[in-house]
Amino acid sequence: MSASTSPIVGKLDWTVTPYTDLLHQVNSSTIVGAGAASVLVLGAVAGGAVLTWMRWWGPLYRNWLTSADAKKIGIMYIALALVMLARGIIEGFVMRAHQATALGTLTEPESGLVAPDHFAQLFSTHGTIMIFFVAMPLLIGLINFVLPQQLGARDMAFPVLNQVSLGLTAAGAGLVMISLLIGKFGTGGWTMYPPYTGIQYSPGEGVDYWLWAILISGMGSTLTGMNFAVTIFKSRAPGMNFMRMPLFCWTSLCVAIMLIYAMPALTVSSAMLALDRYAGFHFFTNEAGGNMMNYANIFWMFGHPEVYILILPAFGVFSEISSTFSGKKLYGYTSLVIASMSIAVISFTVWLHHFFTMGQSAGVNIAFGIATMIIGIPTGVKIYDWMATLWRGRVRITAPIVYLTGFFLLFVIGGLSGIILANPSIDYQVHNSTFLVAHFHNVIIPGVLYGMLAGIHYWFPKAFGFRLDERWGRRTALLFVGGFVFTFMPLYVLGLMGMPRRSPTFQNPDFLPWMYVASFGAVLMLGALASLVWTFWTSYRNRAALAVPGGDPWNGATLEWSTPAPVPKWTFARIPEVKARDDWGETKRAGDPWKAPEGYDDIEMPADTPHGLLIAGAAFALGFAMVWHIWWLAALGFLAIPALLAWRGMKVIEPRIIPAAEVEEADRRFRATVASLAPATRADEESERNRGRPDLAEFAG
Amino acid sequence: MSDNSLYPGLNLGETHSAAHDQAETTVFGFWVFVMSDLIIFGILFACYASYLDPVGLAGGPGPADLFDITSVAIQTALLLLGGVAYGGVSLVVKYEHGHRRLIAWLLVCAALGAGFLFFEVRDFIEQAGKGGVPQASGWLSSYWTLVGLHGIHVFSGIVWIMAMVAQIAVRGIDDVVKVRLSMLGVFWHFLDLIWVAIFSFVFLVPLS
Questions:
Q1: Which domain holds residue B56?
Q2: What's the CA gap between A189 and A437, in Å, rounded?
Q3: Is residue B120 part of a domain?
Q4: A56-547 maps to which CATH number?
């Protein structure tokens, strides 16, 4: 990076790529850096080539990027998350590989695969990506896909706003991705605590990449939260009162409320840090009255609700699958609702446990410690409810149930280590050690990742019309379980032995065996990632055999299983009249659930628009320009956003009308298909005989 | 409150059937957005309070050196009158008094908002001249950020008003425009609410 700023290209010049570093000095660290940049470039080139070769640019633009359909937006969120997941897992593997070779000596303290600065970038991007660009898009995508279908709605309350939210999230992800190739990422961890990340100690572009990625995608998440909340409050089907909503909708409501109240805190802390860095303000500096504790408090006011934002949708998924795959009604519906809401509220009262050691009085620490332990109670209630749901059910060991079992075994351990950490006097001993790293991976991987992958497996046929291969699905799940155990259990031990987190090196040879075990676990995690990709690929190849045109492959009880698979863009030919909790199950019990509705009406759908895409482009330009001090482009990107809003405001936008005749034709075709299918029993669920029409005699849910 | 009230505030009423129904979802959504915005201001208020001590002031100029309470009182009057004027907008829409009166009321709101901004910016320039720049201390950083963010909101409100004037001129008072005017009303009154808190906690408390 050059010292001067050009008016045209800001601080950009030819020295910012990792290839320049490689030319300067060839070692394992620069090779890894240049290799990662090459993967990005080759991936982009290959993606572009495939799209051009298959002539997919047009369909991609028309059917996906300009679509305001919540189901498609959900799928795009999940696709984005899976791409980022691949990078996150690979980074995790590189970090494990580094630490396994990082035993230093007194004469040669630095060793290992990558340089210390490179290692710091790795754990910073890994954390940022996994939280903001894997977990968040996974859960937001899944909710987008499932929520309107479960509520009996055609779409979100604000479809175009939804598109904008996706665009902003993608723009943030794009900024993190491009930092592989152009410049460096920050080294302050995913929390980017000042004053280290202030301009005095981190003068480069790295922290700015983080700031703009977070500010832009955080705005998208806030808007998503509003959209979910309004959809749940205002767009439910007639008769779908609150206590009839499936549990997944309840946890989505909790997530929505938490996004609305928690995301602004992140926006504020990041904006204040940006003002410190760009305009010389003194919020968090060491001198002139700055106070970094304000950053810690505001960040974790967001950060703690955030971890429950991540976990609650997974709890929703586990509620759905435990009921469906054991063929029983969900046990303790009301207690699960109360527990979810309690978690949502209590999660706002525990943030201080992230910095017990940063100087509060003992009394304050104790209050937050107790609040933290209390939040374990509703979570425990949920675990018992799910186990009681499975109890004496006819449980089918499908891939989601493997994930659920892994979750039961591992999440409880993670929760218990959390209770240990909630005790301030113990926290003083193990804080900032790999014990903590083990703890939060132990709740996030079995909780969020398993939950989301189980959800993807469960609802995949609804999106694409064919099931995922169960055998490969189970192998993936088992690899993720094994990978987790081998990677993170050793970190508990290492933490207790005194290994600090985020260390690029260590001098105690006793650590080494545990490091090797953890690296073996990281290999398993890579295997799990490959297996996940293979599951999608092999299922796609066998899509004819796995097709479920009947739309109800698991003998489900909630509304989304009443429609064809893949679900049509209007979702319901006629908005259902909900008469009971688990309305589709109730209809099954009453006799012929696939009876045609009495009549069809024209359906209004939101018109396609490139609005979200354009705003995403402007936001990305703004973020990138701010990182590199390209002021003219920043001004352009900044002004483009209100201009786009104003331009859209002037136009009268007509919705797309789908004529009743078209809906009727498609719906009658679907009902004729269902009538022609042979009902599949539970024993046949994984075989080719499962065409999406279950044997109703077996329905007990 | 009448029984046909679908969202807090002045409803369009059932005579505006389609717009009234649409407003239920859209204006409710906007209320949710405002709640989220309120959290941002709430955190900034808390920060302001935390920097309002000798450490946060860091030897720089303080409230007594910088605040001109007469100017702040004038700003308050202008902004709150702007809020009252928006009542004119809402009533013209609800009782369909026509384009010209609607645009006139909107311009009155914009003018009062601009008057507020004029005095606010003048104060900022004066304070900067006395060394009260945001780079001087943690307290000044938080003062400029909180009051400045409110000022940016007022500016955005004026831009939004002008956009609505353009929309009314081009597309007339259709259902979409009516709903947007209801949202703008929520936003414009929200700015008054924040200002009342700023006037009390930012200006009066440290001067008392």
A1: 14-207
A2: 12
A3: yes
A4: 1.20.210.10
B134 contacts on A by Cβ (under 8 Å): 275, 279-281
d(CA A674, CA A561) in angstroms, rounded, equals: 13
* Residue from A226, A278, A293, A604 to probe the interface with B (highest B Cβ count within 10 Å): A226
Q: How confident is the model at residue A116 (pLDDT cuts 50, 70, 90)?
A: confident
- The answer to whether position B5 is within a domain reads no
pLDDT on residue B121: 95
Calculate mean pLDDT across residues A55-61: 89
Alpha-carbon distance of A119 to A360, in angstroms, equals: 31
Q: Residue B9 domain-assigned?
A: no
| Nearest partner of B43 among A269, A451, A448, judged by Cα | A269
pLDDT of residue B113: 95
* Gap between the Cα atoms of B176 and A655, Å rounded: 13
pLDDT digits (tens, 9 = 90+) for A237-281: 999 999 999 999 999 999 999 999 999 999 999 999 999 999 999
A283/B138 touch (CB, cutoff 8 Å), yes or no = yes
Q: Which of B20, B31, B36 to mutate to test the interface with A (most CBs of A within 10 A)?
A: B36
Note the helical H segments in A347-398. Answer: 362-390
pLDDT for res B93: 85
Total domain count, chain B = 1
Higher pLDDT, A443 or A592: A443
Mean pLDDT score of chain A, rounded to an integer? 91
Rounded to a whole number, what is the distance in Å from the CA of A169 to chain B's nearest CA?
18
Across-strand partners of A259?
none
Q: Map out the domains of chain A as residue ranges.
A: 56-547, 552-600+673-701
Distances (CA, A) of A696 to A178, A201, A327, A700: 52, 66, 11, 9
**Would you say the C-alpha torsion A185, A187, A191, A194 has a positive or negative sign?**
negative
HEC profile of A131-200? HHHHHHHHHHHHHHHHHHHHHCCCCCCCHHHHHHHHHHHHHHHHHHHHCCCCCCCCCCCCCCCCCCCCCC
Of A442, A430, A443, the C-alpha closest to A497 is: A430
Q: pLDDT above 90 covers what percent of chain A?
A: 65
For chain B, which ranges sit under pLDDT 70? 1-7, 9
How many percent of chain A have pLDDT more than 70?
A: 99
CATH (domain of B93): 1.20.120.80
